[in-house]
Amino acid sequence: MRRNRKAKIVATLGPASSTETTIKALHLSGVDVFRLNFSHGSHQDHRERVEIIRRIEHEVGHPIGILMDIQGPKLRLGKFDNHSVELVKGDTYRLDLDEEKGDQHRVSLLHPEIFAALNVGSELMIDDGRVRLKVTEATDQYVVTQVMVGGVISDHKGVNIPGVVLPISVITEKDRIDLEYSLSLDVDWVAQSFVQQPEDVRELRTLVNGRAAIMVKLEKPSALEHLDEILELCDGVMVARGDLGVELPPEQVPIVQKHLIRKCRQVGKPVVIATHMLDSMVHVPVPTRAEASDVATAIYDGADAVMLSAESAAGDYPVQSVTMMDKIIHEVEQDPVAQNILDAQRPDPNATTADAICNALQKVTHVLSSTATVTYTSSGSTTLRAARERPRAPILSLTPEIKIARYLCVAWGVHPVLVSVANEDANLMEVINTAKDIAVREDFAKLGDAVVIAAGLPFGVSGTTNLLHVAWID
Predict the structure, then answer these.
(1) Is 76 among the catalytic positions?
(2) ω before 458 within 30° of 0 (cis)?
(3) 217 labelled catalytic
(4) Which ranges of the chain have pLDDT less than 70?
């Protein structure tokens, strides 16, 4: 099943997209990776969705990726006597550990670790920054604040504390239970929320223990201060613009997004742009022109994938949202300027054989106007190196590992195919002929076309990319 685009689509499943009919329609309309949000839904809900996805995968004969998203710690206010209060700019307001219901003067914030980290001058943002408080008195039991931006606050509204690294584990007990459950379902990616520092990713990697790839959600400014080390520890990145946009000034978010896309491409790690991409399509069948431009910008910048959240999980038009995103991506990728931008931003290759091969692959593909590049990979590394070059022809990734094929569904330009050849006993002509046959079978090449093949000798051994071959379909 061939996609006529290179950037990928990630879509969140939820109440609006739980039936087999809808999930299949989403996949056929363009979804490459399905996201399971463990902030919502029961374990049984997620199990049923995984089973549906795997049935569809078997039916269409093409790998489908599954990303589970752990919730992470949620900092929330307690309850109010009348469910809400309105704060006025200049008011004094107290947050404390008292479990009594809140009123016009105080409310509980049952997170003692927060009080340990706050100082006079610290800011708290409530309900995605709609209400802002500044600490004027701080103790380990309560803080007194001044209301800087007024508004209504209500039961269990979320709290953000920009510029403060909280002394907590970002993996809660709920996350540990959800993680083990989802790994038993054989998900392909685990998205980690609330990452503040490299130690958070190390903790998750120990728990995952190689059973899935790790995608770090960059939503805390403190994580950006440790970006290089975090990138070394993870397998991919999600730019979670919702929380990031609360804790950073809005004018900085587009700049950070572009920087993260470039940085991830340099290190060859997939990057997903998420949150509010087609948000108006939660309730109407067409996006705003600004939203269409937002998706297009991510594609021009070279993002591996763009993501739908509420649009596909809880909206009125889940399939139409995917169809629209697919159309926008396809239209942008037909613009010659898009490829010129990707070419201009190509990272310099490292002094390794694999980088040299994949760098040459991009150039040979362009010179010969080949219709496909083919990579043989057992770990995914050869394919990701090739994707980093953003070649003009799509990348057929041939792998004997279904787990790797599913993992690569999020990577730019990659069409993963499960094969049984390319083990250590395979000979060169067998490998070349298999690549040619699959390129024709998958509708990437026809008689007279050139395909460019990257692989490693001996075959089937991870990390040995050292072969570049041009084959003509005859």
Answers:
(1) yes
(2) yes
(3) yes
(4) 421-426, 460, 463
How far is residue 138's CA from residue 95's CA, in Å, rounded to a whole number? 10
Cα gap 164→444, rounded to integer Å: 50
Q: Spot the catalytic one: 145, 275, 382, 383.
A: 275
- Does one domain contain both 227 and 325? yes
Which candidate in 54, 74, 76, 327 is catalytic? 76
Q: Of 103, 137, 160, which closes a domain?
A: 160
DSSP state at residue 36: E
Boundaries of domain holding 89:
84-160
pLDDT digits (tens, 9 = 90+) for 4-39: 999 999 999 999 999 999 999 999 999 999 999 999
From 3, 6, 8, 35, active-site residue = 35
Active site residue 35: yes
| Shared-domain flag, residues 130 and 48 | no
Residues 6+ apart with CB under 8 A from 434: 398, 419, 421, 422
Question: What's the rounded Cα separation, in Å, for the pair 440 and 264?
Answer: 32
Q: Which of 5, 8, 157, 217 is catalytic?
A: 217
Task: Say yes or no: 381 and 467 in one domain.
Answer: yes
